[in-house]
Each structure stands twice: as C-alpha cells, then as structure tokens.
Amino acid sequence: VSLQELMQPESGANGTAIAEFILLGLVEAPGLQPVVFVLFLFAYLVTVGGNLSILAAILVEPKLHTPMYFFLGNLSVLDVGCISVTVPSVLSRLLSHKHAVPYGACLTQLFFFHLFVGVDCFLLTAMAYDRFLAICRPLTYSTRMSQTVQRMLVAASWACAFTNALTHTVAMSTLNFCGPNVINHFYCDLPQLFQLSCSSTQLNELLLFAVGFIMAGTPMALIVISYIHVAAAVLRIRSAEGRKKAFSTCGSHLTVVVIFYGSGIFNYMRLGSTKLSDKDKAVGIFNTVINPMLNPIIYSLRNPDVQSALWRMLTGRRLLAWGGLN
C-alpha cells in the first residue's frame, strides 16, 4: 500500500472518531529498519548511561555540590525522560512491525514530551541566571543562589512546564479526527496531529504561538539579557586567563541553548507548511535523540571536575570490590 493511498480518508469514515494513529516511522524500506534500530538503541543506551553517570558523579562527589551542578543533575534526569518518551516506542514498533498507536497513547506521548522539553527550557534559563550571579554578583552569590532558591527555581520550572503541556494536550483532545490517521513521523507531536484533524485547528495554532511566545520567548530573552551582563563583566577582567576561565563556564551552556532553541523554533514555526517532509523527521531526531545525547558530552564529559569525579567513582568501586575479595 502506497503512502498516498494510506493518507486518503477511509470510505464512510466521515463523522466517525478514529481510535488509533499509524506512525510510519523514519524509513519505509524494510532493509533500512535494522540499521535504524541499531542506531536508535545505541543512542538510547549512550544517552541514558551518560546522563545517569553524570547524575551519580554529582551526587557522590562533594566538590560538585554547587548550584551549577545541581541544575546540571536535574538536566540529566530531564534528558533521560525526554529520550525515553519517544525512543523505546520506536524500538518496539521496529521489532513488532506494528505501526498502530492508540489515540490515548498518542496524547500521553504528546503530554510528556512537552512536559520534559518545557522544564528543559526553564532550567536552561535558571542556569543562565546562575552564571549571571556567579560572574556579575560574586559577593552575594551564595545568598542569592541558596539551596532554597535552587529548589524554588526547579519547582517553578516543573509547574510552568506542566501547565503548558496540559494546556496543549487538553486543547488537542477537543479536536475531531475522522478521516486519514497516518502520521508520516516517528512520534506524536502537535504539527503532525494538526494536519490530520477534521475540525479547525486555527485556535490550537494560535494557542501554540501565544503560549510558545511566553514559554520560549521569555526564557530566551532572560538568557540573552543574562549573557549581555556576563559578557560586559568578563570583558572588564584584565587577565586573559581570568577571561578564559569565566567564558569557559558559559560556553557549554550557550552551545546547548543555541541547539535547543534552534531546532525547537524550526520545528514549531513551520505549522503553515502543507506537507511534512523528511526535514521534519530530521528536526524530530535532533529534538528527541541528539539533544539529550549531546548534553552530557557538551556539559560534563569535557569538564575536568566531572571527569575526575567519574574516574574516582569507577576506581573507588573497583578498589572496594578488590578489598571485598581479599
């Protein structure tokens, strides 16, 4: 059955609510599916292993009990959550060769994906604020970024992201789906579902732009303002070594911010396009697989403090095991 035939509404389906969606996945060619399975499994294991290793190092190493690493530990949990929302279901469909996804499961995936991405968005803002206080307000840093403030920032991030994800999920549940039910993608998301709806999606798209402007625009503006102040403060440092050290703590964060916002903007600002192309799948891979996999590499695996903590943790366990044998 061709993709064009699948995309056509079933005869007599008008007015009948569909119970499931068909996710076509990344590739239609059967020969390429084992390759996709191996690549996605590898990416999933690397992401989960890398992020949980960093989280363990932050928890056991007293030197890493600072606000910056507290936020980084939370980011690691989010990355595991974000990739777990999409990749395991892709792997199970590749193994079973079943492409059908129940309507409820599709909305559940949509909710959790937007929840984790939303928290990520606010957490990156909290990290920018932390760098601003550390570099521009060093004398009052410990009081302004106390443990209470850190927990409040994380709790507020979760609360805002939960509200956003619930809003989009409830709004999506009000739409009618009565015709074509084939999604040319590998997970359920707003742009793909909008195109399949029989009812008008104008209000939903306006909601996405309005809430997206608040959810992404406000944090982005705060990050830019924070880094303007940081850049001004760093440029006032006289020693080249001091400037290099100050910028090195911000470089990783800025790299992640650019990748995160760049792929997100591309994904959701193309709602007007009538055809979903392979570009959308590529951006989807970036959002759901590559971003969570890159974060531990960009932030921590090139960080000497984390590297030494991971090494001590691994060698310490080996020494304990060797001592137990003797």
Automatic annotation (TrEMBL):
Keywords: Cell membrane, G-protein coupled receptor, Glycoprotein, Membrane, Olfaction, Receptor, Sensory transduction, Transducer, Transmembrane, Transmembrane helix. The chain crosses the membrane at residues 35-60, 69-91, 111-129, 149-167, 206-235, 247-269. It is a multi-pass membrane protein. PROSITE patterns: G_PROTEIN_RECEP_F1_1, G_PROTEIN_RECEP_F1_2. It is found in: Cell membrane. The keyword Cell membrane applies. Its main location: membrane. Residues 50-299 form the G-protein coupled receptors family 1 profile domain. GO terms for cellular component: plasma membrane. GO terms for molecular function: G protein-coupled receptor activity; olfactory receptor activity. It comes from the Eukaryota. The keyword Glycoprotein applies. InterPro entries: GPCR_Rhodpsn, GPCR_Rhodpsn_7TM, Olfact_rcpt. Odorant receptor. PANTHER family: OLFACTORY RECEPTOR (PTHR48001). Belongs to the G-protein coupled receptor 1 family. This is Olfactory receptor.
